[in-house]
Amino acid sequence: QVQLQESGPGLVKPSETLSLTCTVSGGSVSSGSYYWYWIRQPPGKGLEWIGHIYFSGSTKYNPSLKSRVTISVDTSKSQFSLQLSSVTAADTAVYYCASYYYESGSHHRKFDCWGQGTLVTVSS
Amino acid sequence: DIQMTQSPSSLSASVGDRVTISCRASQSISSYLNWYQQKPGKAPNLLIYATSTLRSGVPSRFSGGGSGTDFTLTISSLQPEDFATYYCQQSYSLPTFGQGTKVEIK
């Protein structure tokens, strides 16, 4: 069973860059059956996908965040990472990494594994 | 983007009640619909995928149905551990979530 663990600073200053890493264990970040996602949840609110990366390095970002987001993968360390630039208080949220499993036969996809989440607060 | 709208936003129910949560997509998504349960301070947890397939280990009191644009999650007999927030998510295109339905104790 894949396990995911987020790591990174819990406090970021406005206008700076938020950086988080997700470590994948019990599975391979090089698996062609998974997309590796970052999702966030502002306090008391719903879930918003930030973007994903495939093992090949191809990425897709939420259009609302696209200009500020970079997701990268390091297959040698079994990690993928998020950078969100020019943060404001509106970026304060719990950030989750998650695995999105793709069933090649049915084409169904599902978030089958999530990290525990890490609260990132944007404040001076 | 495909918009997902859940109703109600919250509900109060008692242990043993039958509970139904609705989820509507802004366009047809066939059967590409998943449901998640989230408890306070925890990550969401997959309950149902492909509209009606229970994830292994999920109790049979949970069921999902629908197709096209209208979907439901039903809990046949609410248990104390089911009080949580439930989210639908479409997997037809880039994923989007409903706003959540909080199930509270009456």
How are the secondary structure elements laid out?
The complex is a heterodimer of chains A (124) and B (106).
Chain A: E1 3-7, E2 11-12, E3 18-25, E4 34-41, E5 48-53, E6 59-61, E7 69-74, E8 79-84, E9 93-102, E10 109-114, E11 118-122
Parallel strand pairs in A: 2-11
Antiparallel strand pairs in A: 1-3, 3-8, 4-5, 4-9, 5-6, 7-8, 9-10, 9-11
Chain B: E1 4-7, E2 10-13, E3 19-25, E4 33-38, E5 45-49, E6 53-54, E7 62-67, E8 70-75, E9 85-90, E10 96-97, E11 101-105
Parallel strand pairs in B: 2-11
Antiparallel strand pairs in B: 1-3, 3-8, 4-5, 4-9, 5-6, 7-8, 9-10, 9-11
Keywords:
heterodimer, A: 124 residues, mainly beta, seven-stranded mixed sheet, four-stranded antiparallel sheet, 0% helix, globular, B: 106 residues, 11 strands
User: How many β-strand stretches of chain A?
Assistant: 11
- What does the main sheet of chain A amount to? 7 strands, mixed
Assign an overall shape of chain A.
globular
Q: Enumerate how many helices of chain B there are, as a single number.
A: 0
- Rg of chain A, rounded, reads 14 Å
Main sheet makeup of chain B: 7 strands, mixed
Given as residue ranges, the uncertain stretches of chain A (5+ residues, pLDDT < 50) are: none
Report on this model:
- The complex is a heterodimer of chains A (124) and B (106).
- In chain A, 36% of the residues are buried.
- Chain A is built from no helices and 11 strands.
- With 124 residues, chain A is mainly β.
- In chain A, strands 2, 4, 5, 6, 9, 10 and 11 form a 7-stranded mixed β-sheet that branches. A 4-stranded antiparallel β-sheet of chain A has the order 1-3-8-7, with no helix packed on it.
- Chain A has strands at 3-7, 11-12, 18-25, 34-41, 48-53, 59-61, 69-74, 79-84, 93-102, 109-114, 118-122.
- By secondary structure, chain B is mostly beta strands.
- Helix content of chain B is 0%, strand content 50%.
- Chain B has no helices and 11 strands.
- Chain B has strands at residues 4-7, 10-13, 19-25, 33-38, 45-49, 53-54, 62-67, 70-75, 85-90, 96-97, 101-105.
- In chain B, the strands form 2 sheets. In chain B, strands 2, 4, 5, 6, 9, 10 and 11 form a 7-stranded mixed β-sheet that branches.
- In chain B, strand 5 (45-49) and strand 6 form a beta hairpin.
- Chains A and B meet through strand 9 and strand 10 of A and strand 5 and strand 10 of B.
